[in-house]
Amino acid sequence: MTQLRFLLNDQEVALTEVGASDTLLDHLRLARRLTGTKEGCAEGDCGACTVLLGRLTGAGLVYEPVNACIRLLASCHATHVVTIEHLRGPEGGLHPVQAAMVEHHGSQCGFCTPGIVMALYGLWMTDPQADEAAIELALQGNICRCTGYQPIITAALAAGAAGGQAQDALACERAAVTARLAGMAGGRITLARGADRAIIPSDADDLAQVLLAEPQATLVAGGTDVGLWVTKFLRDISPAVFIGHLMKDISVAGDEIHLGAGVTYSEAAPLIARHIPEAHDYWLRIGGWQVRNMGTIGANIANGSPIGDTPPLLIALGARIVLRRGDARRELPLEAFFLDYGKQDRAPGEFVERIVIPIREGARIAAYKITKRHDSDITAVAAGLCLEVQDGVITDARLAFGGMAATPKRARAAEAALQGQPFAESSFDAAARALAQDFTPLSDMRASADYRALVARNLLRRFWLEQSDPGLPVRLRQPVGA
């Protein structure tokens, strides 16, 4: 097929001239004149461009807030894009979320307001009784310079109390929208705008064949990184193969979690909370809500960034990945996939198909992320720690760090300093000193080399303190409004 099809509010859109680098935001504002969706940062950080994206999943039709600025248009096939213009109340007036924002003075300059309303709308639909903690989590990816957030939180609480979810337009239209999106599914789609080409495979088998024919193509999953290549660096990504709708399988087999490479952070979050609860807070700091709804675990690995959020934790847990080229597959430890900066053990035409994560029952696990601001920020140092302790002795230690080397990397010397030693403060002090043998970090805009080295040492000491006294507070939170 040569036509991109999706629903935009209450209209069906069919496009034949679509380039790989076309963004959803530009289409909304320039082609459709839906200017309620704003461009602020053009990198998925400020949330002014937030829209809802409805897509069919195994659980039915799901709506999620996403960043239109880095959402590439070709990835919207067979979805329902909902903008601020589509919101309305039961009588055609303001939606309950909009009305609450007006009543509680949740907007000042107004530039960020449409994106905030759309994020809160997504929360209002899925969690009608959301408390302040859930509201703050939903607003991680929305930056407001005016209000200080308290009026916005108050408005969100009021909107939840107002109810009306059953009468909401998206709820009433759910069956019809589901049927229309299901009718858009089909075979491979090939799109072009001049020499700018986009390919949407029908399934993973089709993807394997596409990459045999186009081994140098750019793979686009959630677009949370590739989108910046387009908006910030003006890179030519053609031909691009869009795979965010593929490899969505999730299962638990014995003592292992199996994730398709296309599983998003949000889709994996319930499984992480259930089987690796020590990493749940860490997981919810991977970008903002919009980024977690778009970004995929497989792409975070395949991108090979030294500051990717998932590899340190997954390496510490002993994760493996399955690579596929054509019909051939091979499995290797995740740590072996990263060879050097920008270089991974992946042949042309090969792609990450699956991630296998051991469930380490009884292990002592932690995941830490150090950033300049707490929410929705890029990592300066990340750590994944997993220790087995028997009768007070450390029998196995796996320590992995991001931001400390050219790749996500295990701290072998620090592991050796812990192996066979008592689970005691002195052992962790020795491991912290041994980190100097493992890493020679660099200075950049996010942190100096000395700071990174100090943080890594202190994270080992933090781990000891938390494990030796589980009642020790990890994070001091000020009451909202204090």
Automatic annotation (TrEMBL):
Cleaved signal peptide residues: none
Sample GO molecular function, one term: FAD binding
Domain named 2Fe-2S ferredoxin-type: residues: 2-87
Enzyme Commission number, as recorded: 1.17.1.4
InterPro entries on file: 2Fe-2S-bd, 2Fe-2S-bd_dom_sf, 2Fe-2S_ferredoxin-like_sf, 2Fe-2S_ferredoxin-type, 2Fe2S_fd_BS, Ald_Oxase/xanthine_DH-like, Beta-grasp_dom_sf, CO_DH_flav_C
Pfam families: CO_deh_flav_C (PF03450), FAD_binding_5 (PF00941), Fer2_2 (PF01799)
PANTHER family listed in its UniProt record: XANTHINE DEHYDROGENASE
Name of protein: Xanthine dehydrogenase small subunit
